[in-house]
Amino acid sequence: MTELMQQMADYIVKDIIRRPGIAVDEDTPLVSSGLIDSLALVDILHKLALLTARKIPAGKVQPKDMDTLRLMFATVERVGKPRS
Fold first, then answer.
1. pTM confidence score
2. Which of 34-44 are b and which e, b meaning 16 or more Cβ less than 10 Å from the residue's Cβ?
3. Which pLDDT value is given to residue 1?
4. Of 3, 13, 22, 70, which has the fewest CB atoms closer than 10 Å, so is most exposed?
5. Contact indicator for 39, 62 with CB cutoff of 8 Å
């Protein structure tokens, strides 16, 4: 797992899920498993934009794009724009 993915995983576990014993890796299903809900996706998308220093248009991101860390970072590469 890359350093950015690890930071995102730590954020999701500590600030979003907040349940002891939950581990998140790059392929852990988050949305489809019910670990996170659509409301949490807003916070996660904001954190992802901060970590990657990219603008991520929310209108181009679907919940399925945010199901795993691997998908999140692939989505950033696909739709994210460098911050000027």
1. 0.93
2. ebbeeebbeeb
3. 81
4. 3
5. no
